Amino acid sequence: MATNRRVSRVAELIRREVSQMLLNGIKDDRVGSGMVSVTDVDVSGDLQHAKIYVSIYGTDEAREETMAGLKSATGYVRSELGSRVRLRRTPEVIFLEDRSIERGNKVLSLLNQIQDRQKPESQEGAENID
């Protein structure tokens, strides 16, 4: 069992290497259909499994295509990780879509709508005081 510090260091290294592969290494056209970024990597305590969370910007169709391309490229990504990252065993790679940025944008827009609705009411109250 690896220490927490080692697990986090390996996760950061995997995140960096997979990001580089997304820019230069993966030749599948489906991966390029949406803008992809690695948001997080979760590595198991025994360093045998790595869940790679990706954020995909684009339409729903582009997201599906990109995820299909990433799932088909898992073998390539694992073999490249094996050559780039020196570990006794290369972890199994699983790509998962991360929609937290999308949810955050939705919450921000709702908060902005609430704020815009409250501004006219507060201005009307100020006019009545005069």
Structure overview:
The chain is an alpha+beta fold and 130 residues long. It has four helices and three strands; from the N terminus they run αββααβα. The protein has helices spanning 4-25, 60-72, 74-84, 100-129; strands at 35-43, 49-57, 92-97. A three-stranded mixed sheet has the order 1-2-3. Strand 1 (35-43) and strand 2 form a beta hairpin. The longest helix is centred in the C-terminal third of the chain and has 30 residues, at 100-129. It starts with a helix and ends with a helix.
**What does the main sheet amount to?**
3 strands, mixed
Total DSSP E strands? 3
Structural class: alpha+beta
Backbone shape: flat
Determine the strand fraction and express it as a percent band: 15-25%
Q: What integer is the average pLDDT?
A: 83
Sketch the topology as an H/E string, one letter per element: HEEHHEH
Low-confidence stretches: none
Strand order of the main beta sheet, please? Answer: 1-2-3
DSSP summary: helix tally: 4
